[in-house]
């Protein structure tokens, strides 16, 4: 308020001049009347008065004219233009200021009572000020700011309160750059399109928080208009052209209801830049709704395609039924369903039909007889899928004109018809003996005249006639090398079954390599013995080798086989598995009594009760002192073959010292060792036994 003293002075001066001029006009209206009127209105006349020439008034005694106002004031009082005692100013009037053109009071430099300079900061609350604390204004903790306004942090006080998040403060009204307090969350924020507040001062027409609506362009804050180059789908726009002009993809403002919509064939507007089929053909016409007319192709039910929104022409690729077309291929060539324009003649752009007399190769026709009858070179229209095709065995159509008696689709054999691979009998009824094996008819082979062969049963084979000869088919085909054949191929007592390999359907024989259980064989691995089967001849032929069957099968690991009992030359079935049917050997761990063994330790080592393999003639005999073999495991240190004492060995009669090395003091008097005594009792004539077992 006090930041613009020059402007305020000029306003006050202008107002003062206007008042002076007003008073002079009244004076000029009539001097007498004016003077009388002024005196009556302004002063009370007495004998002593003062006349104010400048103002044209007279003041009573004790008063004087105000220096700059048409009034009388006390002499030496406020308004005389002189700062008198008790005054801080005197600007020659007793008013606080003047009203400007808008009716707002503009304070002057001195208050009406001459007590205040009416400047913010003088400590006096003057008109227009909310407060005035003098030097405290605007200081820390002050309640009055430097502009003599009560300090608050509300938006609209024209003060930017950064601490409250304000970016600006325009006062009570919006400005071009700042929202006022009515902007809600955007109050005292820099005006921005998209802030959700309509700021007309910022030239906004609308503001929807940046979201397009039917009445507002979100990003521009302008009203939606087709041609404004802003796409607002919420306002119903699908596209925006070039400032309202048509483009190849968008209708311009001239399109009426279709303005700012994607160009489509059928929108009723001819957009000459738009190609419905994304080619170089632009719209030449456009029927609203996309329907066909005799003069304009529609949009093919919304599918467009070649010829859409073009003038109808056979070969434009668009079927316009309103123009009499049943079909239309692009460029007018034949297609699988449609005759083209080149050779179609009367049936051009009509559906291709077998029998229409036009060979449409694109429709798969190889021929076409007008009227659709069969011919030697063409199937008629009654031929189904092969109608208007050159007759061929296997096309599934019996063309009797082409000499067929049957025909299977694809040319494959069937039970009653030979397929196309049958040569001279192709597409003829199948017969066993026609020299063509028709598998679908149950044939696996077919010999001329139906005779048996090494690979095929002849026509006399009953249910297996014209079938490949197979062991187990129940028919003995000697040409195929069979000696017998059981139906189903199972083994029989007199015939090997089909699982017998090379001897299948042969008479069973031990040694033929096939085990025919029904023929009494437990196994059959040929003539020779094997580790799992006895060969032919001898005992137990074609039986699983068993120790005790009296057949020595060396392939099965047998060294002998004399039956179940032990013999001097063979262990029997009582021996452990590994020793059965093996030649008895001392040290094999099995005591074969028939072989003269009294004992037998595995490995042949001596044992306390058995001599080992080192014992010579007494090996595998019970260890006995006097058998001539010193068995250390039996506690022997020596052994004489006679059991008698020797110079170095006590004999069998030595008791506990038997078969021990002779030793003086061992308790046995061994005279053969030169001992005379063992104790004094052994000496006579009073002699005693010394340490060398001699009597002295």
Walk me through the structure.
The structure is a single chain. The chain has helices spanning 5-28, 31-42, and strands at 50-52, 57-59, 63-65, 72-74, 97-99, 105-107. Strands 1-2 form a two-stranded antiparallel sheet. The protein is built from two helices and six strands. It is flat. It is low in regular secondary structure. Residues 1-47 have low confidence and may be disordered. The longest helix is centred in the N-terminal third of the chain and has 24 residues, at 5-28.
Compact description:
With about 700 residues, this protein is largely without helices or strands. The protein contains 2 helices and 6 strands; from the N terminus they run H-H-E-E-E-E-E-E. The longest helix has 24 residues.
Please supply descriptive tags for the structure shown above:
two-stranded antiparallel sheet, 3% strand
